[in-house]
Design goal:
203 residues, Tetracycline Repressor, domain 2, elongated, Tet_transcr_reg_TetR-rel_C_sf, TetR_C, transcription regulation, TetR/AcrR family transcriptional regulator, DNA-binding
Length: 203
C-alpha cells in the first residue's frame, strides 16, 4: 500500500506514527487512544483510518517498528562497530548522553513497549522479539570479532555474553525510568562492561 501514497500522504502517515510513539513513550499504552493521536496531529478520524484501516491495532504495530529503529539509532554509530574495548566504552558514553538529554524519561523505546504490548498482541510480540534479536546480533558480531582478535578468551560463549549484556542494559532502563535517574542506567552499563572485562583474555 505504501507505493500508492503520495509524498504528502506518506509524510502524514509518518507523522501519525511519530505522534503515537511519542505519546505512548511519555504516557504509557493504556493512556493513549486514537483521539489522543488525532489531537496531537490535527488529523481527522477518517485520515487515521485511511492510513491504518485496522485502527489502533495496526497503528500500534507501526509504532513498534518505529520504536525499534529508534532504540537502535539511539546507539549509533557505536552500535555498528562494537569490536574493541574502546568501542564499548564509546557505546556506553553515547547511551548515557542520549538519555541524559531526555531527562531519564520514558525508558528504552523498545523495552517499554515489550512490557505493555507483548502479552496482549502476538504480532506486536513477534516484532518486539525481532527487534531484540537485531540488537543482540549487533552485540554478537562485535563480541565475535573481539574473540577472534584475541581480546576475549577463546572459550567465551558469545551469544550468552550478548544476552547477559542486553539483560543488564534493559534492567538499567527500567530502574532509570522508575527513579528518573540516569545514574541507574550508568550503573547497569558499568556492570555490563565489567562482565565483558571478565571475559577478556589475560595479557
Amino acid at each position: 500500500m505504501a507505493e500508492a501514497w503520495t509524498a504528502k500522504g506518506a509524510a502524514t502517515r509518518s507523522r501519525i506514527i511519530d505522534a503515537a510513539a511519542a505519546l505512548i513513550y511519555e504516557r504509557g499504552l493504556a493512556s493513549v487512544g486514537i483521539n489522543d493521536v488525532r489531537a496531537a496531529t490535527s488529523t481527522s478520524h477518517g485520515q487515521v483510518f485511511h492510513y491504518f484501516p485496522d485502527g489502533r491495532t495496526e497503528l500500534l504495530r507501526a509504532v513498534v517498528e518505529r520504536q525499534t529503529r529508534r532504540a537502535l539509532d539511539d546507539q549509533r554509530p557505536e552500535l555498528d562497530a562494537l569490536d574493541s574495548w574502546e568501542s564499548w566504552q564509546a557505546w556506553r558514553s553515547r547511551l548515557l548522553a542520549v538519555y541524559s538529554a531526555r531527562g531519564a524519561v520514558g525508558g528504552c523505546p523498545l523495552g517499554s513497549l515489550a512490557a505493555q504490548m507483548a502479552e496482549s498482541d502476538p504480532e506486536a510480540a513477534r516484532l518486539i522479539s525481532a527487534g531484540f534479536d537485531t540488537w543482540l546480533a549487533h552485540f554478537e558480531r562485535g563480541l565475535e570479532t573481539m574473540r577472534r582478535d584475541g581480546n576475549l578468551t577463546a572459550t567465551t560463549d558469545v551469544p550468552a555474553l550478548a544476552r547477559s549484556i542486553l539483560a543488564l542494559v534493559q534492567g538499567g532502563f527500567v530502574l532509570m525510568q522508575a527513579s528518573r535517574s540516569v545514574e541507574k542506567l550508568s550503573q547497569a552499563l558499568d556492570t555490563a562492561l565489567l562482565l565483558l572485562e571478565n571475559a577478556g583474555a589475560a595479557g
